[in-house]
Amino acid sequence: MKKQTAGRDQLGAFAPKFAELNDDLLFGEIWSREEQLSPRDRSLISCSSLLTQGMPQLEAHMKMAKQNGVTKDEMVELITHLAFYTGWPKAWSAFSLAKEIFGE
């Protein structure tokens, strides 16, 4: 897995400890536990959680999911399934992102 630097890139000077925890702990130690869950599975879980919360980080995680092998059809199914649990408007918003990231 590619080393994450988003924390340091975006918050390193402002919130250095948070940036360190983001890059080294969350995306370093947690995401690297591939024997427990694959990056693809972690991406599906992360996208599900972010979608249900309506968080803007969903876009970055959808891009990561695509890189981790999640297909367009799988993302469409994830959003469709969660629409009934999280709400129709959140699903609509997620579909807009998915169309941009996974193509028509």
Could you characterize the architecture of this molecule?
The chain is mainly alpha-helical and 104 residues long. It is built from 6 helices and no strands. Helix 3 runs antiparallel to helix 4. The protein is globular and about 40 Å long. The mean pLDDT is 94.
Summary of the model, kept short:
The chain is mostly helical and 104 residues long. It contains 6 helices and no strands.
- Count of DSSP H/I helices: 6
* Relative strand content: under 5%
Major sheet description = none
Q: Using the CA coordinates, give the radius of gyration.
A: 14 Å
Coarse structural class: mainly alpha
Global shape: globular
- Percent helix range: over 70%
Sequence of secondary-structure elements: HHHHHH
The end-to-end distance, rounded to whole angstroms, is: 27 Å
What is the topology?
Layout: H1 6-11, H2 16-30, H3 39-53, H4 58-67, H5 72-86, H6 88-102
Helix pairs in contact: 3-4, 3-5, 4-6, 5-6
Name the features.
single chain; 104 residues; mainly alpha; 6 helices; globular
